[in-house]
Amino acid sequence: MGGMATAESYVLAIGTKKGLWLATSPDRKDWSLSGPHFLMSEVPSIGIDTRDGRTRILVGVRSEHWGPTVFHSDDLGETWNEPEQGAIRFPEGTDAALERVWQIHPDAESRPGVVWAGCEPISVWKSTDGGEHFELNRGLWDHPHRGEWGAGYGGAAAHSIVVDHTGEKVHVAMSTGGVYRSLDGGSSWEPRNKGISAYFMPDPNPEFGQCVHKIAADSAVDGRLYAQNHHGVYRSDDDAENWESIADGLPADFGFVMLTHPGRAGTAWVIPLKADGERIPPEGRLAVHRTDDAGATWKRLDAGLPEKEFNSVLRDAACVDTAEPAGVYFGTRGGSVYASADEGEHFAEVASHLPDVLCVRASAVSGAALPGAALSGSAVSASAAGA
Amino acid sequence: MVLPSVLQPLAGGQSFLTAPADTAVTVEGVLDEVTGEYPALSRRLRDETGAIRRYVNIYVNGNEIRRLQGLATEVSPGGEVLIIQSVAGG
Q1: A97 and B6 in contact by Cβ < 8 A?
Q2: pTM of the entire structure?
Q3: Residues on chain A bordering chain B, Cβ-to-Cβ distance under 8 angstroms
Q4: How many angstroms separate the CA atoms of A227 and A217, rounded?
Q5: Count: domains in chain A
Q6: Confidence of residue A373 (pLDDT cuts 50, 70, 90)
Q7: B6, A377: Cβ pair inside 8 Å?
Q8: Residue A351 sits in which domain range?
Q9: What is the ipTM of this complex?
Q10: Which of A67, A95, A379 faces B53 most closely, judged by CB atoms?
Q11: Are A291 and A266 in contact (CB under 8 A)?
Q12: pLDDT confidence of A11, banded at 50, 70, 90?
């Protein structure tokens, strides 16, 4: 199978509508692609957890026939494990069933073992054993607003989870419902959407009900968040108490992606789409836009991207790594995946003609060899057999 | 109970699972019995609420149970329960 990469390599995990591909690179320029894993199952969520001296790849997998589940691999995709009772199961009494895992978010370095998940139906989950078993967050599940939350086009889900360095302040974004904040580690939640428009509702400025597509925290400024809304790009400097538009300078304020720099204040990336009713790059010209001043100005980045591209980029089909300079990665619904090793200044195509890209995650992998991924079985169950 | 090949790895490689019964039992009872020691197999067929997944079809003696009494459909001793995934997707 594929070649071996050595220490200080990079792995890029690509979740698609029909399976998972893994790309590896020694330098973030030359990539080797292997896969698919979980062929014919969608992979809408990936978490790469490099804490605790190991690299664990967690994937939310969903078969149209056999339902959703979570697998993890501690050997970079050589084998996959599925907890016997399932990692995420709605408890008795909720009368709910897991539909799809939308987000897998390893917590801070200081909290090894803690992994968060955002799911459909709208729910947040927390694991303390590295993602093998998750517990339903009851504060959000039992929230009195639940009955009024709705479903976006892709389903009703909690898709963004942002946890601060203390572990007490947690922001969640859901479509539709908007941003909710907890100041007690997730026990209780309040909506925090002041300033975010819900133009599609009778009251365009409701307390909640917004269709926030993605939120991300500024890693270097406490209390600063960015949001890509269903029309609207926003920043908050006060832990989501107030949001203000930072869309000026962008070719469009619609889109799904919001990325922030892993260590530098004020830097964020979006990938605009023309509009709700025209979900294509503006004028068919795909570009990433980066701000280095917290949204005051934006720079168009399209070097290495195709001249014409009419596919959209979904909310988790983009990510950054933690290297210096930061790498930026994204995939389209047309199955192309692009990588930049210089914060978006130049992109190169890592893969093309894959199924719709739903999720990408990248990480440096130290002290480990990267095996070439074998073609695994044709369904969730067959992959489990290799565990 | 007859499993499609794709699910057999979740039942220790078996293509047939049997449930002892002297009298008629429900499909639900059969599923509970045969998947008891294979929780991953159970999750592929039914969700947490116990509902059969949308694109999983279960036949008793050649009849799809959604056209019978669903999980309450009775299976006679010696009867066959067949699991087939729908033809679906694109």
Answers
A1: no
A2: 0.94
A3: 40, 63-67, 69, 82, 84-86, 89-90, 95-98, 377-382, 384-385
A4: 9
A5: 1
A6: very low
A7: yes
A8: 4-371+378-386
A9: 0.92
A10: A67
A11: yes
A12: very high
